[in-house]
């Protein structure tokens, strides 16, 4: 504060104000006990299998399928490459309807495929793509919809699917925020043609870097697994221009250990969520997102909506 006590003086970028030497983090990654990771590393050193769908990779795919309640999942090096590959897997071209209210990777995955992102506004209550506005944005070039379960809150999956069905469009969910989220009937990841997860350090479940595509059938998984491994089918045959999107054994091993603690981590988030809700009750100009209702949330974020005329 300056002498008049009316204007906040912010520190220069890169410096820390004297009274704020202990930084306050917006988020911190969940890390398991380090000593429990050592045996995993010893196994990797013993086997010298570092990547290319090794034993930890296979175990993690199985374990995540069980945990998430889905059948087919393909692990990736990160969520962005998984999004790029998901679009390739379904041979999406032309225009894709998506939300502007997301992390940049959603739209960038379209641009990296030479696809035009067409933005449709969000519902101000859910912060997700508003299905009522999708139809007006559909053109003869539209091939798919790429909604985001923003902050882990499920989209209006039925509303979106109805439009997709009547216009013959694919639906690829950016589910980067939605690890472990369920609706009344099961995993939110079962909706649409594909769902893409991120296991980045800032997400509810992290493998430092990582991601995955959830797909409905074994045949699609085979295609995705080929695409993420240079288009290889077997040792010497390459059938299409793929990419290197493989998750390493290090990240997969870490994922197996993180999975043992993820319920505990989500419970801690739930406690914090409840405390925020309680203490923000009645705060002027601030609104929290609606209760999850029948959905099982993961408490990934705690967005607040601030009234624009709030002083
Ligand atoms: C984190 C995130 C991504 C990208 O995931 P990475 O694993 O960081 O590449 C994509 N979309 C959304 C909405 C995200 O929050």
> How much beta, percentage-wise?
15-25%
The set of bound ligands, ions and cofactors reads: pyridoxal-5'-phosphate
Radius of gyration (Å): 21 Å
Number of helices: 7
Q: Tell me, what is the CATH class?
A: Alpha Beta
How many strand elements? 13
CATH homology-level superfamily: Type I PLP-dependent aspartate aminotransferase-like (Major domain)
Report helical residue fraction.
25-40%
Protein model, in words:
The protein is globular and about 65 Å long. β2 (95-98), α4 (105-111) and β3 form a beta-alpha-beta unit. α2 (55-68) packs parallel to α7. Residues 1-5 have low confidence and may be disordered. With 311 residues, the protein is of the alpha/beta class. The chain has 7 helices and 13 strands. The chain has a single domain (34-262), classed as Aspartate Aminotransferase, domain 2, CATH 3.40.640. The strands form 4 sheets. Strands 1-9-8-5-4-2-3 form a 7-stranded mixed β-sheet, sandwiched between helices. Strands 6-7 form a two-stranded antiparallel ribbon. It has a two-stranded antiparallel sheet with strand order 10-11. It has helices spanning 34-47, 55-68, 79-89, 105-111, 157-167, 218-227, 249-280, and strands at 72-76, 95-98, 116-119, 142-146, 170-174, 182-183, 186-187, 194-198, 211-215, 232-233, 237-238, 286-288, 304-306. Pyridoxal-5'-phosphate binds at residues 78-80, 102-103, 105-106, 148, 174, 176-177, 198, 200, 211.
């Amino acid at each position: 504060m300056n002498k008049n006590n009316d204007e906040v003086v912010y520190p220069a970028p890169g410096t820390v104000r004297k009274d704020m030497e202990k930084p306050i983090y917006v988020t911190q990654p969940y890390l398991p006990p380090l000593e429990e990771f050592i045996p995993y590393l010893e196994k990797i050193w013993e086997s010298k299998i570092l990547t290319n769908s090794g034993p930890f990779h296979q175990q993690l795919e199985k374990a995540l399928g069980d945990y998430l309640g889905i059948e087919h999942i393909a692990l990736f090096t990160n969520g962005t490459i998984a999004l790029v590959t998901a679009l390739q897997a379904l041979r999406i071209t032309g225009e894709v309807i998506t939300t502007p209210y997301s992390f940049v990777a959603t739209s960038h995955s379209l641009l990296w495929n030479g696809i035009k992102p067409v933005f449709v506004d969000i519902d101000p209550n859910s912060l997700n793509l508003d299905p009522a506005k999708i139809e007006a944005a559909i053109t003869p070039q539209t091939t798919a919809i790429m909604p985001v379960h923003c902050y882990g809150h499920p989209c209006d999956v039925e509303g979106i699917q109805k439009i997709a069905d009547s216009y013959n469009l694919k639906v690829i969910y950016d589910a980067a925020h939605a690890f472990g989220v369920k609706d009344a009937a099961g995993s939110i990841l079962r909706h649409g043609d594909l769902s893409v997860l991120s296991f980045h350090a800032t997400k509810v479940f992290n493998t430092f870097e990582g991601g995955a595509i959830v797909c409905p059938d074994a045949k699609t998984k085979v295609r995705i697994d080929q695409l993420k491994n240079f288009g290889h089918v077997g040792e010497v045959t390459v059938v299409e221009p793929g990419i290197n999107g493989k998750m390493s054994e290090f990240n997969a091993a870490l994922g197996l250990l993180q999975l043992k603690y993820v319920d505990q981590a989500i419970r801690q988030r739930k406690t914090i969520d409840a405390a925020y809700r309680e203490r923000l009750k009645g705060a002027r100009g601030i609104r929290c997102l609606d209760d999850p209702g029948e959905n099982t949330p993961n408490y990934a974020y705690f967005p607040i909506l601030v009234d624009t005329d709030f002083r």
